[in-house]
Design brief:
About 20% of the residues lie in helices and about 30% in strands. The strands form 7 sheets. Strands 22, 23, 24, 25, 26, 27 and 28 form a 7-stranded mixed beta sheet that branches. β11 and β12 form a beta hairpin. The N terminus and C terminus are likely disordered.
Length: about 725
């Protein structure tokens, strides 16, 4: 749908005018055999055991699949099928019908039951020498010389197998070190077969398959469907963890950047499984779906470890799917559905986590997810790594993704494309007389962890945009930011509440409102009122004193989650500041302290944080050591908040050997709310106070609050 501007006449005196909302585009589902089967199951046209049988037929290209379920193509990736077949409480007769699909192909009862395949042969060669003896129908393998025993690449003795195996070994030689340094080593793929069977050691097996070829593993026969890319299967499952093996379509290897990204994606799944292989999304059509964070972080791995493939393999997931949708961040669905494609497109949340916490944030997330088996617990864990109530609205504003707005994804990669998200409202507001009624934005339903975007253009003569948010239901779940284009530059106005004003509006040509729902459970609704008035903002009360002085902010305490994981913080920041005429906090700061993480298995990590520096207005996650920023926001309900962001030195190490490890830059931050109206803050001294008044980023406000420690004006 084109982003057409809607011109509105000014409402009559006292009357409201509702701005027309625009529907979110209905992204079509992909038509595959699996989506047809899921739809039939959801409509009760087939039962669950029958759906499993049909999914096997679709996966293996069986002629037994009824014609109604034969789409143009079948997905080669049905990651939960074998686990469902073995884990689901099926009737004996249903289990008997599925046994031919899950028994070893060498069993006479298997639907395949081929004659014994020739033994696997080891192929080795040196540059410029013969490639070895090729026996048609046999398996050949190539091991890495850089990471001996870590992985083994297999191919059938067909085509240019030597080049294909060398290509994939080369990819893995580049990927293995960086990926395992972040995530830890995979669990061994202990093959119960003989040394000459396809497997043969404890390394991760990677099978290169052409159309029609298959591999027998763990009682299953796996193949790559025509035109498919790659997939991963669990192996040697241990409760909630497992190893795995990877299948790669040989036809994909011609496009080397794309193939390398595919292998990074699938190998990341193997590394994820070493921490938790049991995560599955909510049941859709009677069977669990793949997990959103599993897929989102695997696409992030493509971005992180194969930067040369970003343009062709990663960016389109954001520009074509995520930015056009208002599904929940954690949406998941059956293969081929919009929700399924959204899982992969949600890689921008791990990318945002990397901006805030570095790549270690992804590592921390997967270590924290160990033992977690259900989606609700997964969201609680991820919330503990990067709090949704604090950060989701910032992520939503960044996902606006307009050139010139900071922070931005372009700060991670300057080639990250800018794109216009779907706009719920795109309207021009004529200047209004004071007695005119407001314009109204009706929000009929915003999904959990989702955002809506409204673009407003201000007509000549407008001097103030008044924004009323009192009509939003469940205000504790809402965050509203404004992104303002004023005098040729962008400004982010954070966390509006109650009644706020964008002043000096004659210099503002457009405003984006970012409405975000940081709840993980509630769908929210309500109304926003807008007045584009010809009146100036009321003059702010004169400042009785300039904000400035010294205060101490301490982050100290211990928290333990339901899984027995304990985090202990003991960090103190000393701040000395003044407010510049441009509205930026200036001054200097210092920080010192420790962070400790004890997991339920007895493991322990310790990090020492230290640093000092000055406050700068242009601060981002890649700012140098010593940079800092202090910002204020107005959350309403009689509070004023502050956020303190500092680039410090971070030294992680095992608790029993704190001298090891390597120093690295780390963005450390606090967010806090201060009571106003003279109310005491629980647990804080109240022997002095601080007054803020005037304008901050174009919002007129006056706030008065207690601060931790005694703030005194600088001489």
């Amino acid at each position: 749908m084109a982003n057409l501007a809607v011109a509105c006449s000014a409402p009559a005196s006292g009357a409201e005018h509702v701005l027309p909302a625009r529907a979110v585009p209905n992204l079509p589902s992909e038509d595959t055999s699996q989506t047809r089967i899921a739809a039939a199951l959801a409509a009760n046209r087939i039962d669950y055991p029958t759906s499993l049988r049909y999914r096997f037929d679709a996966l293996f290209g069986s002629d037994d699949l009824p014609s109604d379920y034969r789409a143009a193509h079948a997905s080669a990736d049905d990651p939960t099928l074998f686990r469902e077949t073995t884990d689901s409480p099926l009737r004996e007769s249903d289990t008997d019908a599925l046994i031919p699909f899950i028994t070893r192909p060498s069993d006479p009862g298997s639907i395949f039951a081929p004659p014994p395949a020739p033994a696997a042969r080891h192929l080795s060669w040196a540059p410029g020498s013969a490639a070895g003896t090729c026996v048609p129908g046999s398996w050949l393998y190539e091991d890495s010389t850089e990471h001996a025993g870590a992985y083994r690449v297999w191919a059938a003795c067909t085509g240019d197998y030597a080049t294909d195996m060398a290509t994939v070994v080369g990819f893995m030689d580049q990927l293995y070190g960086p990926m395992t340094s972040l995530m830890g080593a995979p669990l061994p793929d202990v093959d119960p077969g003989a040394a000459d069977a396809p497997g043969g050691n404890d390394g991760i097996d990677i099978y290169l398959l052409s159309d029609g070829e298959y591999v027998d593993r763990d009682g299953h026969r796996h193949r790559i469907s025509p035109g498919a890319v790659a997939t991963t299967f669990d192996a040697n499952i241990h409760d909630t963890t497992s190893s795995g093996y990877i299948l790669v379509g040989r036809g994909r290897l011609g496009g080397t950047d794309a193939a390398k990204a595919d292998i990074a994606h699938e190998f990341f799944h193997v590394l994820q499984d070493a921490h938790d292989a049991s995560l599955r999304g909510p049941s859709v059509g009677g069977h669990p779906t793949p997990d959103w964070f599993t897929e989102a972080s695997a696409v992030w791995a493509e971005f992180q470890f194969v930067p040369e493939a970003r343009a062709g393999e990663v960016y389109g997931r954001f520009t074509k799917v995520f930015s056009k949708s208002d599904l929940s961040l954690f949406a998941s669905g059956a293969l081929g559905t919009p929700a399924s494609r959204h899982m992969y497109a949600s890689f921008v949340w791990p990318l945002f986590m990397e901006q805030q916490r570095g790549a270690l944030g992804i590592q921390t997330a997967w270590r924290s997810l160990e033992g977690v088996t259900d989606p609700a617990a997964e969201l609680r864990v991820l919330n503990g790594v990067l709090g949704f109530s604090t950060y989701y609205h910032e992520f939503a504003a960044e996902a606006l993704d307009i050139a010139g707005i900071a922070p931005s994804f372009q700060q991670v990669d300057r080639n990250f494309p800018t794109t216009m998200p779907h706009l719920m409202v795109d309207a021009t507001l004529p200047a209004q007389d004071p007695e005119d009624g407001p314009y109204v934005l009706e929000e009929r339903g915003l999904n959990p962890l989702a955002a809506h975007y409204e673009r407003l253009r201000l007509s000549p003569g407008t001097r103030q945009l008044q924004i009323g948010l009192d009509g939003l239901h469940d205000p504790q779940d809402w965050d509203v930011d404004a992104v303002v284009h004023r005098g040729g530059a962008w400004q982010n106005v954070r966390l509006l509440a109650g009644a706020a004003s964008i002043c000096d509006a004659q210099r503002v040509d457009r405003v984006y409102l970012v409405l975000a729902n940081h709840s993980v459970a509630a769908t929210v609704k309500g109304r926003v009122t807008l007045r584009a008035t010809t009146l100036d903002c009321h003059k702010a009360a004169s400042r009785t004193r300039m904000p400035g002085g010294s205060f101490t902010e301490t982050q100290k305490g211990t928290t333990t989650d339901a899984y027995g994981t304990t985090e202990t913080d003991d960090v103190t920041a000393e701040v000395h500041l003044t407010l510049s005429d441009a509205g930026h906090f200036e001054g200097n700061w210092s920080l010192s302290g420790t962070w400790r993480y004890d997991d339920q298995s007895g493991g322990c990590r310790l990090a020492v944080l230290s640093g000092s520096g000055t406050f700068v207005p242009d601060f981002s996650s890649d700012s140098p050591l010593g940079a800092g920023r202090l910002t204020l926001f107005l959350p309403g309900d009689g509070k004023v908040g502050f956020r303190l962001e500092l680039m410090v030195l971070y030294h992680p190490a095992p608790c029993d050997n704190p001298e090891t490890g390597a120093d690295q830059a780390f963005k450390h931050d606090y967010s806090d709310l201060l009571e106003v109206e003279g109310s005491p803050i629980r647990g804080r001294p109240t022997d002095c106070d601080m007054t803020w008044s005037g304008q901050h980023l174009g919002i007129s406000f006056e706030s008065h609050g207690e601060v931790d420690g005694c703030v005194k004006p600088l001489p």
